[in-house]
Amino acid sequence: MTNATTVLAEPRTSARLQMLQGAAWGLFAISIWSGWMVFTRLDLHGSGLTVYDITAISFSTAAILLFPVLLRQGAFARTVGMTGTALMVAGAGAPYVLVSAAGLLFAPAAQAGALIPGVMPLFATILSVLFLAESIARNRLIGLTLIPVGIVMIIGSSILFPEGQRWIGQLLFLAASPLWASYTVTLRRSGVKPLHGAAIVAFWSACLFMPFTFWL
Fold first, then answer.
1. How far apart are CA 188 and CA 138, in angstroms?
2. How many Cβ atoms are within 10 Å of 80's Cβ, its own excluded?
3. Rounded distance, CA 113 to CA 86, Å?
4. Tell me: the pLDDT tens digits for 4-21?
5. Would you tell me which of 5, 169, 170, 187 could form a disulfide with 155, CB atoms 3.0–4.6 Å apart?
6. How far apart are the first and last CA of the chain?
7. What does the alpha-carbon distance between residue 158 and residue 194 come to, in Å, rounded to a whole number?
8. Which residues are within 8 A (CB) of 84 and not within 5 positions of it... i.e. 6 or more apart?
9. What Cα–Cα distance (Å) separates residue 36 from each residue in 33, 39, 99, 104?
C-alpha cells in the first residue's frame, strides 16, 4: 500500500515542480519584457534613436551572438515548416518589435506592460484551443474572462474621450500581443528548443530587416 501511494505521489510532485519551474521562467520573461519596455521608451524619447534603430540593434546583435546555434541546428523549425517559421519570426521578431516600440512613442511603458504580456494569455489560449486542441480548466477560464474587463478599464476612457495620441499606442500594444502569442503557440507546437527558436527569429529578422535599415 505504501509503495503504491509513493508511486502515485511521484508524478504529482513532478507535475508541481514543472509548474513551479514554468512560473519562475514566466516571471523571468516578464522582467525582461518590462525592462525592455522601459529602456526602449527612454531611448525613443531621450537618445534620438528611432523605432528602426532599436529594431536593427536588437536583431543584428542577437543574430551574431546566436549564429553558432543556427549553424548546429538549422535556420528553420522543420516540424512546422516555412509557415510555422514565418509565424515565429513575425510573432517575436522584427514585426513584433516594430509594432510594440511604435506604441511606446505614444503611450507609457506601464500600459505596454499591462496590455502586451497581460493580454497575451487570452490570445495564446484561443490559439492553443484552435491549433493544439488544448482544454481550458474552469479556474483558468475565469481568469481569462477578466482580461477583457482589464482592457476596458485601461483603454476605455482613451478610446471614448481621446486626449492626444495615447490611444494609438494602446491599440498598437493590443496588436503586438497576438503577435507574441502566435510565437508562443508555434514554438510549443514545433518542439524547437527555446535557444534555437531565438536564433531562428533573430537570424531571419536580421536578414529581412537589415537591408531595409541600410536603405534608410
1. 22
2. 18
3. 25
4. 455 445 667 788 888 888
5. 170
6. 72
7. 37
8. 77, 186, 189, 190
9. 5, 5, 14, 11
Residue 96: other Cβ atoms inside 10 A: 24
pLDDT tens, 116-155? Answer: 888 888 888 888 888 777 777 777 778 888 888 888 888 7
Nearest residue to 30 via CA among 113, 96, 89, 90: 113
Which pTM was predicted?
Answer: 0.81
- C-alpha 181/C-alpha 91 separation (Å) is 7
Cell numbers standing for residue 4: 503504491
| pLDDT confidence band for 47 (50 / 70 / 90) | confident
CA distances 182 to 5, 87, 170, 186, Å, are: 40, 7, 19, 6
Cα atoms found within 13 Å of the Cα of residue 63, Cβ hemisphere only: 20
